[in-house]
């Protein structure tokens, strides 16, 4: 029996598990994976090759960056999909594996996204590529510090992705296929985000697609689908979950963009300047192109070219709010939540389950972090 199987078996419920049971089991599985990785490296004799001066320990970094107790949002969505799909104790072990894999995939995405965006902080702590380059500079190590930092962070992302795929590898063929689709969508969404920013492309259709692929799908839609697949749900139920998940996922992505411009870094744990500084191809900038007055056009053009100063970012942020961009986003969020609420009767006739979905909609659309 593997370590993660032992961890799950220790908390196996006598009846269908509730969300806290699943999240607790996910924590146990992730801790077991970290312990397994340490043992693998010990068995391989890798302790002899440590670099004490640079202090790079990817397993410890993985453990620390998985430990945020406020997260586990994607595992929670997988649990909801499993419940709505009729999951029972027989499929719970597979659900926990998939749910744990979701958080590992999320870490992979975050670490690589931070490198691509040159982000300084994430979840209130210095990003790994920045921290690693700092260590390199402090000891006067050989080579380019920034390249070193990027390399360390890329390797951590690779390790997280490898462990995620390992967990899902023992699941059913249907789950593995959905997982592959989700992974491809995530990577393609990130690529489109990079290429559209580079060629200054701003249009509604592409911005909406990018937001869905790089954020909404792997955060909401696919976790719901994967949970329902684990439960062995009917295709019709899964199709309705996917349709609902896309609406809620679009709201998640739009709220993410709003927080990327007007969020409080003390709450979000990340800067509020990066999206405008880099001219990200978001719907906010599409609406800004429609709503800003002529006096603010030079700021928008500088944003499109990725040439905004820190002071100009603040001026553009204020100009966008004054022009009604933020109000437009909140109007769209209200419309999305209304559509999502109207779809709930198609998903369940259980009052408690429906209430939980209503709470989920509000959490996604109006969250502060």
From TrEMBL:
Full protein name? Polyprenyl synthetase family protein
Cofactors (names): Mg(2+)
Q: Does the keyword Acetylation apply?
A: no
According to its UniProt record, the EC number is 2.5.1.-
Alphabetized GO MF terms: transferase activity
Family indicated by similarity: Belongs to the FPP/GGPP synthase family.
Instruction: Note the InterPro entries from the entry.
Output: Isoprenoid_synthase_dom_sf, Polyprenyl_synt, Polyprenyl_synt_CS
Keywords from UniProt, A to Z, are:
Magnesium, Metal-binding, Transferase
Top-level EC class as recorded in UniProt: transferase
């Amino acid at each position: 029996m593997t370590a993660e199987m032992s961890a799950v078996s220790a908390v196996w419920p006598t009846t269908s598990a509730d969300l806290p049971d699943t999240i607790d089991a996910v924590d146990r599985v992730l801790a077991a994976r970290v312990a397994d990785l340490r043992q693998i490296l010990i068995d391989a004799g890798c302790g002899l090759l440590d670099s004490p001066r640079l202090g790079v320990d990817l397993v410890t970094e993985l453990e620390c960056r998985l430990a945020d107790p406020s997260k586990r949002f994607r595992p929670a969505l997988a649990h909801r999909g499993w419940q709505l799909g009729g999951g029972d104790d027989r499929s719970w072990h597979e659900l926990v594996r998939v749910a744990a894999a979701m958080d590992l995939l999320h870490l992979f995405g975050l670490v690589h996204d931070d490198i691509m965006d040159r982000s300084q902080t994430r979840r209130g702590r210095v990003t790994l590529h920045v921290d690693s380059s700092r260590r390199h500079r402090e000891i006067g190590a050989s080579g380019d510090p920034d390249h070193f930092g990027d390399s360390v962070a890329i390797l951590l992302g690779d390790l997280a992705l490898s462990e995620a795929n390992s967990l899902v590898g023992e699941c059913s063929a249907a789950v593995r296929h959905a997982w592959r689709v989700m992974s491809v969508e995530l990577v393609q969404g990130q690529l489109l985000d990079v290429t559209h920013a580079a060629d200054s492309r701003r249009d509604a259709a592409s911005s909406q697609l990018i937001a869905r692929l790089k954020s909404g799908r792997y955060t909401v839609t696919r976790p719901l689908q994967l949970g329902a697949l684990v439960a062995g749900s009917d295709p019709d139920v899964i199709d309705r979950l996917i349709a609902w998940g896309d609406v809620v996922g679009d709201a998640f992505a739009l709220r993410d963009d709003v927080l990327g411009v007007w969020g409080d870094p003390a709450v979000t744990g990340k800067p509020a300047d990066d999206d405008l500084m880099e001219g990200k191809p978001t719907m906010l900038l599409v609406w800004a192109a429609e709503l800003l007055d002529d006096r603010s056009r030079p700021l928008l053009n500088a944003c499109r070219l990725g040439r905004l100063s820190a002071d100009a970012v603040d001026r553009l942020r204020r100009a966008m709010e004054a022009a009604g961009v933020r109000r437009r986003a909140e109007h769209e969020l209200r419309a999305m939540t209304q559509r999502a609420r109207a779809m709930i009767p198609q998903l369940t006739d259980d009052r408690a389950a429906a209430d939980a979905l209503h709470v989920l909609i509000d959490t996604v659309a109006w969250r502060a972090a």
